[in-house]
Design goal:
The protein has 162 residues and is an alpha+beta fold. It is built from 3 helices and 7 strands; from the N terminus they run βααββββββα.
């Protein structure tokens, strides 16, 4: 199994960062190459929730069904695939000084298909590395922008009306 690890720093408090990344509707906004991500079943987040995903990595499009196997509010979320491309994904959240937070992301993956799958996996490694770098930048950008909108909206709500 190949693995990539990266860290994203967000100009947002820990609880805002966690809530944004925990919302399945936001996954295509930050996960580079993700073209579809939707819940399967009754749960849409938390331990036991399952999702169907489609991700484009370079010349390959991979579909998977993943399950949430760890959910600790404001601390950690982990997923494992139950069908399709074998993968594990974990997010570890940390509070930083000054209303900031950090997310460490680990993504492990292996493709089905024996020798052909391993060959494709090696071919995809540079695309995975680029996707990880883009995903880190996306997380920082979209979470920070989301929080800035929340702060602006709260400030506008406190302003007197003309």
């Amino acid at each position: 199994m190949s693995e990539v690890c990266f860290t994203a720093t967000c100009d947002a408090p820990l609880d805002v960062t966690f809530a944004y990344l925990d919302d399945y509707r936001n996954v295509p906004e930050y996960m580079h190459g993700m073209t579809s991500y939707r819940p399967v079943g009754e749960l849409d987040h938390g331990l036991g929730a399952m999702y169907e995903s489609t991700i484009k990595l370079g010349p390959s499009t991979q579909k998977s069904t993943i399950k949430n196997v760890c959910w600790e509010k404001n601390a950690r979320v982990s997923y494992e695939s139950v069908s399709g491309m074998r993968s594990t994904t974990s997010f570890v959240f940390r509070e930083l000084p000054g209303q900031r937070s950090e997310v460490e992301v680990r993504i492990g993956f292996s493709l089905p298909g024996g020798i052909a799958g391993r060959a494709l996996e090696k071919t995809l490694e540079p695309f995975i590395a680029a996707a990880a770098k883009n995903t880190a930048a996306n997380i920082s950008r979209v979470v920070s922008a989301h929080y800035a909108r929340q702060v602006a909206a709260a400030g506008n709500a406190d302003s007197p009306r003309p």
